[in-house]
Write a structure and sequence with these properties.
alpha+beta, Immunoglobulin-like, 4-stranded mixed beta sheet
């Protein structure tokens, strides 16, 4: 029981903000449909009201601001159900269901492209972007319209809430590892349920307050939502590129273009060495750039000290290295000899924190 309480507290503190940074784009995408639909209904009512007013009749009452609490709760409920089921499966089947870094990278890039396309659809850039929207099959849509007189559809928040299971944040992955280690389906389900339940208050409060404020300025806020989705989509694509060690990510491009030999010792290790020390902290890796001796094997010691962030899930794409680091401790990583000039990139499992080893 103590482990379940710890899981809840972890979600309530570090897990909430960490997961919001990774999954906030999906939540924003699920709510923009609600705002768009409300705008369409208000426009239709306004046109009808003007016609009635010109006919000398009393103007009808306009629609209230969008009801945002329910779609947010549906998003969180779907997320809670999906992760509870995942915890059950992880506890029962062990590590079989864990996603490797390449799969996560593909998902991050795919979801990022979807969010970018969704944002461009909201900006009416081109008719082709109308396909970047999650909608249920037509027979389900017809059923919903028959049963829901207000015309509101909550398919998007339910679907996208469940989709978050495919892009867990670093803290979530640490909790997934605990579920695997439990070796018990019910224990794994309880751990994931408690953790995701703990993350829910942060999701709800941030999303509701932001959207409720924007609901008072719907038309202007729709553009703001589109910009947020666009930025988060680009971040998701960038993180996916980082996760596969691509030189095309923002960090790697900017590092290559603007790197300075006079960089501070906190950001760069100075002399080539055969044994390297890397700190994995709650804010990323330090130093971000290390220099190693070419032509001989390297020992990389990765050190954690009360680390809870995504940095704990350490990945070297070029070597296929994926290690879940302990909360505190030192993990050695053997790196085979590399030719001079090789740049070996590493990152956390979500591509948010990055660094590189340069062989000289």
């Amino acid at each position: 029981m103590n482990q379940i309480i710890v899981a809840f507290i972890t979600g309530l503190t570090t897990g909430g903000l960490s997961c919001l940074a990774v999954q906030g784009g999906l939540l924003a995408s699920s709510l923009e449909q609600q705002l768009e639909q409300q705008l369409d209904q208000q426009l239709e009512q306004e046109i009808a009201a003007r016609r009635i007013h010109r006919a000398g009749k009393k103007r009808p009452r306009m629609l209230a601001h969008p009801k945002l609490a329910l779609p947010i709760l549906l998003f969180l409920a779907a997320k809670l159900a999906a992760y509870t089921l995942l915890g059950f499966l992880l506890g029962a089947l062990g590590s079989v269901l864990q996603l490797n870094s390449l799969t996560r990278a593909i998902l991050l890039i795919a979801i990022g492209i979807f969010m970018v396309g969704n944002a461009l659809r909201m900006f009416n850039v081109h008719p082709i972007f109308r396909y970047f929207a999650f909608e249920p099959p037509k027979f389900i849509t017809r059923y919903i319209r028959r049963r829901a007189k207000n015309g509101e559809s909550f398919f998007a928040p339910l679907f996208l809430g469940a989709l978050t299971v495919l892009i867990p944040c670093g803290v979530t992955q640490a909790m997934m590892a605990v579920a695997v280690a439990s070796g018990n389906a019910l224990q794994g389900a309880a751990l994931m349920f408690a953790f995701v339940l703990g993350t829910s208050p942060v999701f709800f409060v941030v999303a509701y307050l932001t959207m409720q404020l924007g609901a008072r300025l719907e038309k202007a806020f729709m553009r703001f939502v589109a910009i947020v989705i666009l930025v988060l989509g680009l971040v998701s694509v960038n993180n996916g590129l980082n996760l596969v060690g691509s030189p095309l990510s923002f960090q790697n491009l900017s590092g290559a273009l603007f790197s300075s030999p006079a960089a501070s010792s906190q950001a760069v290790s100075s002399a080539p060495a055969s044994t390297l020390l890397l700190s994995a902290t709650n804010s990323g890796y330090s130093p971000k750039r290390l220099f190693a001796k070419a032509g001989e094997p390297i020992l990389l010691n990765v050190v954690t000290d009360n680390t809870y962030s995504c940095a704990r899930d350490f990945v070297i794409p070029a070597l296929g290295v994926e290690k879940l680091l302990p909360q505190s401790g030192t993990v050695p990583v053997d790196i085979p000899a590399q030719v001079a000039g090789t740049v070996m990139r590493f990152s956390c499992s979500m591509g948010m924190y990055t660094g590189e080893i340069i062989f000289q």
